[in-house]
Fold each of these.
Amino acid sequence: MPVDIDAAVLSNTRLSSNYNVVRLAAPEIARQARPGQFIMVRPGRNGEPFLRRPFSVFEILRDPSGSVVGLSLLNKQIGIATRAIFALEPGDRLPCLGPLGQPFTPVDPPTETWMVAGGVGLAPFAMLAESLRSRGSATTLFYGARHGVELYYLDFFEQLGTRLVLTTEDGSRGETWFVTSALENALRKLPPHAPLMVYACGPTRMLAAVARLAAAYSRPAEVSLEQVMGCGLGGCYSCVVEVRNGDRDGHYVRACIEGPVFRSDRVIWETLMH
């Protein structure tokens, strides 16, 4: 069950002039959270912004004994809420509600797992990579950004044994192409009967491209949608997504309830991108 707490800020690591990782003392949420779930936070003061904002749970924090003590959020400052989160200092308080939403579906060996992240879409994959490692699954992270300096937490994933495939649009690190091009190249080389599960999070057009590639190569995929959410509890209907329900199209669901993780072949991407 989700809980609503006023979490203390443990630390704020600024990765760049726009990206940061905030660590929160929220064990009540962290102990329940599963990879792909999110929390709703209310940063700022004087009632602005009025609505909470959704953030994927990035890491589960543990003390030296292994006890869960909190969680972290990966943030990119863009608007009022994300600027307020970027400015947080240790000891500040951040109201948090969670965990919310449907998580990724983990798989076991011998199925290989590929995670595809675009920019801040890296957020749900720290937890997922840890979970897959505990199951013994071989993991690869396809991680794309505009510039090499915007590729973060690489050491974290390498320490988990995750193979990295990096792409940048300006060629400053890794391959010079979109992350979906790297994914397509890898799918083309993979033996047809090799078991594989694809997970993706990032901009909607990137997710649509991943869904198209997964279908073309007959591979299952799950995507975490970055929908605008007003409440996170299904009451405001601000995050509706058109999906296929069996053979029937035109069925709308709330991403905060049935998502944010969806099977990629369920989503009607044409509607989502308009």
Amino acid sequence: MSVTPATTTAIRADREIQDAVEAELEWTPEVNAATIGVAVDDGVVSLSGEVDTYAERTAVKRAALRVRDVTAVINDVNVHPNSAFYVSETDIGKEVEQALRSATNVPDTVKAVIDGHAVTLLGEVAWDFQRRAAKRAVRYLRGVYSVDSRITLTPRVSAVDTAERIKAAILRNAQVDARTVEVSADGTKVTLSGTVRSWAERRQADLAAWSSPHVTEVYNHIVVEP
């Protein structure tokens, strides 16, 4: 099969992205970059390897998403701590409970179920930021290998101007080019579409939608197109 100039350019771009991701991992203090494999195919980054903590696994993914021209990240990094990091299920349960109760932005309605080293968060909260706060509170605890948030939002009343108000919030955000983002609402369900230049922009648009008092679900279909 012949290699066209376009194919050669794409391969070169992927290699440049791979180099940039590897450099960003090296630049991230909480990550042992030597244990992480990086592959890139048409802007999609695949991460592999093993880390000692769930927090490090999260840091690896975030580092890759910070790199320009990355369109998606597949995180196949596994948590496999050495013996020094071993913590019993009972100890994990105690630490998770303490962390949730100590977080001022996590309501008492949030509960945790511990199965080995996996934490499942349950309950109902008023705002999405509280769900994110609960996950963040337990993500960095010793012995936690994974966190599955099944926290739901309290029922909300829909509004006729939900889409317009979310669009206005995105327009106010200096980090997002709102001209390329579309917002539609169906009751309390919101769909975001369009294109942005980075994952940071995509995330900001997502946060704007979740900040609405009339939203219970957000479907973020925004595509990152460098």
Amino acid sequence: MASAREFKERLNGQFARIGHALSSPKRLELLELLHQCEKSVETLSANTTMSVANTSSHLQVLRGAGLVEARREGTYVIYRLADEQVNALVSSMKRLAESRLAEVERVLADLNDGLDDDYLEVADRAKLMKLARTGEIIVLDVRPEDEYEAAHIPHAISIPLASLKTRIDELPRDQQIVAYCRGPYCVLASEAVRVLRGTGFHVVRLGDGIAEWRAAGQPVVSGQA
């Protein structure tokens, strides 16, 4: 029979598989994307600007650690998070890093440089939805269309960041715009604010992503714009 020490080492070895899977910045990005909605390898490749082969390799590591699952749809392999606990773990890790690593704060400061006055902390999300419903403000979802279709804030309109410059005339210039993306560590909304402010729009960023919106007890909807 194995000794207690051998059992402990075997057990910690299995726990370490999760740590290894989370040790790559690219794999963390893939998990963030899959928390929005399930995606094919090709879509994930496009979202991350990695090659399909490299994307597939990272996904295999995540799958080997039990963090993602896959299914086939014709010739495509579609991935999804294995469980909501995966996102809870990643979110907890990010919050811990922000509280313990000064460099995280510096990176976030660089990301938000010049935008501090345009950050919206939502104390009353129901009021925000009311203003969006009545057309007093525009809630703008700048994530890719598949993520919007999977779940979005009620009354939000979809213009992905990649299309924003060519579709900017679709936005009214006489109303406040509230842009949001995947949450507090997502860069898409910050980039959207810079683009829109550069052409004279009154725009702020919403700190919430869909996960934070749900966690606050607010409804989300799905479907096309």
